[in-house]
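Researcher: Please predict.
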Amino acid sequence: MFSMSEKELGKKWDRCLADAAIKLGSGLGLGIVFSVLFFKRRTWPISFGSGAGLGMAYANCQNDLRSHYLQPRSQKE
């Protein structure tokens, strides 16, 4: 039926890990900035930013890995 080559799967995993690193770093950075500037150095903005970044990366990765199995919708004329 559907078979994904190992090379294609490896590329998707590489994209997922790179995306996760970028989003985790961005969330962590924004969390630190908000913690220092607005929340009197509390730790919850850092945790929230990191979690939100990882959550977005997980959702993107899940969609990317499932995209091979999704059927495109046919256009009605």
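Model: The chain has one domain: 6-70.
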